[in-house]
Design brief:
Layout: H1 3-17, H2 23-27, H3 29-41, H4 43-52, H5 64-84, H6 89-105, H7 115-126, H8 134-145, H9 159-174, H10 178-192, H11 196-213, H12 220-246
Helix pairs in contact: 1-10, 1-12, 3-5, 4-6, 5-6, 5-9, 6-8, 6-9, 7-8, 8-9, 9-12, 10-12, 11-12
């Protein structure tokens, strides 16, 4: 990583630290703790976590830590949405399992073009030996297929399958808030070796892409809380842009 990126990363993290924890985690702290515990205690998910790390590229900012965060938030969303739908605890837990399995696998083809669609195919092959029904396997793989923004999606007619897909999408896009400027951006720059001049020139486009995510959330809970993650990301991104232009004279 170029020295200036290291300096900018430190500045960005200081900016991030001034922003409060997203309201989502305060509103649903019990559900979030349950989802975290579920991910830890499920023997199936433990096995999947142990093997999936080899597929994930930490240098792209979408590695194992990212996958676990998405899994916990997808599980949280599923608990909240499942309760609103009137699902039993047993059925809701099964859907949490599917959402978290999809989350752990959603970026296994992250380095490849059209990574969501290829990841769905790879996940189907990988999960063939796991105790999922054909319907459950379809839910997981469609969720992975549908998790990328601004890309073609597969329609999901089953309410449960649609919920698995939507929870994964929203949880993944929550990461476009503070995580984007704490980890993801710098990991991707380190991996791609982008020159500073190119980074600065493309920075406004990155902010515009972040704006577009604002209206794409899919679950009822995601539509309420997701834009707040994005608003925080935008505030951080604009402040960092001001640092680039005024302190580093890069524009």
């Amino acid at each position: 990583m170029e020295p200036i990126y290291h300096t900018l990363k430190i500045r960005a993290r200081k900016i991030v630290a001034r922003h409060p924890c997203p309201v989502f985690y305060r509103c649903f702290s019990m559900e979030n703790n349950y989802a975290s515990s579920f991910l830890e205690k499920s023997s199936l998910l433990r096995e999947l976590r142990g093997s999936v790390s080899g597929f994930l590229n930490e240098n792209l900012g979408h590695g194992f830590e990212h996958a676990e965060k998405v899994a916990i938030d997808a599980g949280t969303l599923m608990i909240v949405e499942g309760r609103a739908a009137g699902y039993s605890r047993m059925y809701s837990d099964r859907l949490v399992l599917l959402a978290q399995a999809a989350a752990l696998l959603h970026d296994i083809c992250r380095t490849e073009e059209d990574h969501a669609h290829k990841g769905a195919d790879r996940a189907r092959e990988y999960l063939a030996g796991y105790p999922f029904t054909d319907t459950e396997l379809n839910h997981i793989c469609r969720a992975i297929y549908n998790h990328e923004a601004f890309k073609q999606t597969l329609p999901e007619t089953s309410p449960a399958g649609r919920l698995v897909s939507d929870c994964l999408y929203d949880a993944d896009k929550f990461r476009w808030g503070t995580d984007n400027f704490s980890f993801t951006l710098w990991d991707m720059l380190n991996f791609s070796k982008v020159p500073v001049s190119k980074f600065v020139a493309s920075y406004p486009d990155g902010i515009n892409t972040l704006k577009k995510i604002h209206g794409t959330f899919r679950t009822r809970t995601g539509k309420k809380h997701g834009p707040r993650f994005i608003d925080t990301g935008l505030a951080i991104g604009r402040e960092l842009q001001h640092v680039l232009e005024t302190e580093f004279k890069l524009s």
